[in-house]
Amino acid sequence: MSEKKAVILLSGGLDSATVIALAKAEGYACYSMSFDYGQRHRAELQAANRVARQLGVVEHKVIGLNLNGIGGSALTDTRIAVPESPTEGIPVTYVPARNTVFLSLALGWAEVLGARDIFIGVNAVDYSGYPDCRPEFVEAFERMANLATKAGVEGDGFRIRAPLQNMSKAEIVQAGSRLGVDYGLTVSCYQADDEGHACGKCDSCRLRAAGFLAAGLNDPTRYQ
């Protein structure tokens, strides 16, 4: 019987670390992919490396992109401030086309590896309202993946797995803790310093802190 492989998008944050643990618990050999895309919070890349080692992925790949060449987001354009209080509508931390681009490259690697499952840690409960985190987007990308690839046309097809989709942040933290995720290795902050210390004010920091509080678990986040 051939090895069951999965490609997993790994940002270095809380959610994607949990997804790796969940995939491993399902018996997948995990191949993680991160992106150096011009983000201001590059400490997450070091965190991704730490998480990949701790959770024993088979291979961790970092792909260089230039999404800051497009701009349009507080995460890729330092002239746009990261909001430190809740805002109305889709926040300026939304990165245009980010999950579409990331999943497309993960799809390419999955086809090369012979993997048929691609995991992404998007969430539609405790999240910032990004359009490319919704179930409709995940379903649409899966349809596209099976139209656009040799493996999709000739083989078994691909599944885009989003196991955190309907979980609260507290439920995510509890699930990962049961599976041995060391959240002290992760970085979620949108404006973390070079050592990975969090601001404690941005949307991602607020969601993370509220998740640990609601879960009744110690928050290992290191703050500035």
Strand order in space, largest sheet: 3-2-1-4-5
- N-to-C series of helices and strands: EHEHEHEHHEHH
CA-based gyration radius = 17 Å
Q: Into which percent range does the helicity of residues fall?
A: 25-40%
The separation of the N and C termini measures 49 Å
Architecture overview:
It catalyses: 7-carboxy-7-carbaguanine + NH4(+) + 2 ATP = 7-cyano-7-carbaguanine + 2 AMP + 2 diphosphate + 2 H(+). Its EC number is 6.3.4.20. This is 7-cyano-7-deazaguanine synthase. It holds the Pfam family QueC. Catalyzes the ATP-dependent conversion of 7-carboxy-7-deazaguanine (CDG) to 7-cyano-7-deazaguanine (preQ(0)). The chain has 224 residues and is of the alpha/beta class. It has one domain (5-215): HUPs (Rossmann fold). It is 37% helix and 11% strand. The protein contains 7 helices and 5 strands. The chain has helices spanning 14-25, 43-54, 98-113, 135-148, 150-154, 169-178, 203-215; strands at 5-9, 29-36, 59-64, 117-119, 159-161. Strands 3-2-1-4-5 form a 5-stranded parallel sheet, sandwiched between helices. Helix 2 links the parallel strand 2 and strand 3. Helix 1 crosses helix 6 (169-178). The longest helix is centred in the middle third of the chain and has 16 residues, at 98-113. The chain is globular. The termini are far apart. The model has no long low-confidence stretch (mean pLDDT 96).
